Structure formats: C-alpha cells, structure tokens
Amino acid sequence: MSLAGKAAIVTGSGRGLGLAYAQELAKQGAAVVINDVDQQVADEAVASITATGGRAVAVVAPVGPTETAKQLVAAAVDNFGRLDILVTNAGVLRDKSLLKMTDEDFDLVINVHLRGTFTCVREAYAYFKENGIAGRIITIGSPTGQRGNFGQTNYAAAKAGIVGMVRTWALEMKKAGVTANAVIPVAATAMTKTVPFFQKAVEADERGEAMPDFFRKELGFGTADDVAGLVAYLASDAAAKVTGQAIGVGGDRLQLWSHPEAVATEYRDGGWTYEALGEQFDELFGRQLQSVGEEFPPLPAELQPETAGSK
C-alpha cells in the first residue's frame, strides 16, 4: 500500500483537514503539491513535510480558475516528474439563510468548491489519460451535501454537486483505470469549533486529549487525522476497485453512503392526475417522506456546552 514514487496534489492544504491529508500522503511516501492562497501558510505546510524527510512544494493560487488547475498539475510534473493523486479539498464558507444570501455569497462558494473541483479534476484526468496513469481522484463532500443544513444553501449545493460529479466520473474514467470517490468527513475544524454542540470535543482536542467516546463513537466526530487515513487509502493501489463511492469517516466511525434510490413506487393506469394525487398521495407516501438535516442524539449532561457565567 506504499505511495512511494507517487505524486499528489492537495488543494486547500495549508492548514486544517487539507494539511492533514497532505501530511498523511507524504507519510505514506508520496511527494505532495501544497496549495493555499496565503504564501506564509503554504510555506509552513511545506516545511512540516520536508522537516520529516518528505517532499513537497507549494502553489499559492485560488482554486476555481482553469489557470490554477493547470498550474497545480504543472507543479507536480515539473517538480516530481509525474502526477498520480488529486485531492480536491479547497473551500470557503459564506453561511446565511436564503433571504440574506447574496449573489456574491452564492457564487464564491460554488466557484471554489464546485467549479474548483471540476477544473482541477478535468486537468488531472487529462494528464492521467495522456500518460496512461491509473490515477486517483479524491473529492471532499460533506454531511450538508448529503442531508442539508440550515443557512448553507450555497455549501449544500456545492457538496451535493461534487458527489454527483463523482458518480459521473466513475463511469467516464473506468476504462482508463482512474478512480473517483468522495470522502464525507466529520471532524474538528475552524467551522465546528464555533458550534456549541461540539465544544467539549474541540476543547479536548486542543488540549491534546482524546475526545469523549460520545463524540467519537455516537456522532462519528473526531480529528483531522482520523480522516486522513481514508484519503491515503483511496489514493493507494489497494483501492483500485473502489470508485464512484461516497464514504463517510470521523472519529471511530466509517460509513458507506448509499446512492439515492426510490423508497416507494406506485403505478396508476393512465398516469397521475392532479385529482388522483390529491386523493392518494398522503395514503401512499405520507409515512415514507424522507427527513432533512442531520439528527443528533441528546448530549449527555457532562458534555453540555458551558454558557456565560458557568464554571
């Protein structure tokens, strides 16, 4: 399962989850192209890999434009002689409820997450095909893209779109031996740090302590390092037959998400008229309507977030 001799690109890898992915790929032997929009952050990420004997270079550019995708692939080929792995992790958030979300809020998130994934994958796949490389495409989804989340119209659309593209790419890339998968991470990040529900877990992680079992097991919520192992596995030769999948990981939990399937089917001679639907829809489907959003079990008393004035 060694990744020795392989080269990878990880977008949005200056810090957080992306950095954990890059460091794990390097740990398993891959040379890595780091990507961030901040030069200092990118340089520090590179140093964290080279300091332990790994190989890494940085490309400082925003993900989204085709020019950045070309620059990333060129950096891998020019510095390491090849490209084998692409992890599309770069993203931004502009969370607002629908009536408060501006065109700019929507377009920015879609451009970085969805268009950025598209342009980078298109460029990497072109290189794989031209050079006969059975490459690995690993995209990053989200529970929000699978289930929805209040205030994240733009983010939900982008992450759901990424999984939809993965299923299509798995079909288009099969003949070339290239795999495409989506990882659905649940981990402590800058975003979850601000959510009171996860306060005790994030605080434990910041102290260098293990998160309480409730988070790691019941919620499947853990650290960035808990996600990185799956990313590296999907990049390996051992995962050659895994493609078109959405795989969740977090804490001690690993999940294989299903593709959308019909949960109930009914037929009516002559088709479904307005009147027929009014008479029969609730009886036929009322008890099988699907839930939306994530549903969490109640927090144990000892894990309740601390409020102002509490000790």
UniProtKB/TrEMBL annotation:
The keyword Oxidoreductase applies. It comes from the Bacteria. Gene3D superfamilies: NAD(P)-binding Rossmann-like Domain. SMART domains: PKS_KR. Pfam families: adh_short_C2 (PF13561). InterPro entries: KR_dom, NAD(P)-bd_dom_sf, Peroxisomal_Beta-Oxidation, Sc_DH/Rdtase_CS, SDR_fam. Residues 6-191 form the Ketoreductase domain. The keyword Transcription regulation does not apply. Keywords: Oxidoreductase. Belongs to the short-chain dehydrogenases/reductases (SDR) family. This is Dehydrogenase.
